Amino acid sequence: MHRRIFLNASRTLAVTLLALSTLACSTLTAQPRFVVSKDQLQQVVGKRFPLRYPVVGLLNLEVQAPEIRLLPEQNRLNATMAVEASGAALNRKQTGTFEVEFALRYEVSDRTLRAKALRFKRLSFPGLQPMASDMLNLYGQTLSEKALLEVVLHTLKPQDLGMVEGLDMQPGSITVTERGLVVDFVAKAP
Hey, which of 54, 105, 141, 184 would disulfide with 120, CB 3.0 to 4.6 Å? Predict the structure, then answer.
């Protein structure tokens, strides 16, 4: 009788150990990740606006907080901002939109996710004459670099990195998904 109990207990222990070792192996091979939601992105970026840019002697541009759209098929983000133009070059204030797309990178020095590889899409003022609108679009690339180049979209907190730093890992690729950003962790380079 004792022998039967011992054998059953041994089998149960063996099955449990096998299950635990399988789970441990699958956990070790899974890549650690950190997810940043679209709402978190929107909130952080919104704090940095409005921004004002003078074009000396001609006009002033005021850019409002962007609406962020995720572009998972391109692994990029889109930002559309309301912009107001006023000044000597215009008869009255004009309201329009400003749109850019960008990719992301991780900055180790301050644990931030930042905009990179900006692509100016358009700067549109429906109420302006075509010549004035063309002039503003010439300034669009410069405006996009000033407004969003190196903009911090998220800062990872020490507790976000605590466990992975202990495993000698750091943020690697950043993938844009339908729900937000997925930051994969990779082994630190020697």
Answer: 141
133 has pLDDT over 80: no
Q: Which of 108, 31, 99, 98 is nearest to 71 (CA)?
A: 99
Contact 183, 163 (CB under 8 A): no
Find the length of the chain.
Answer: 190
Q: Is residue 160 part of a domain?
A: no
Q: Is 89 exposed, middle or buried (0-12, 13-18, 19+ CB in 10 A)?
A: middle
pLDDT at 74 over 70: yes
Which residue stretches of 37-157 are H helix?
A: 38-46, 130-148
Tokens of 4: 């039967």
Give the range of the structural domain holding residue 121, as residue numbers without chain letter: 35-155
What is the number of structural domains in the chain? 1
CATH code for position 109: 3.15.10.40
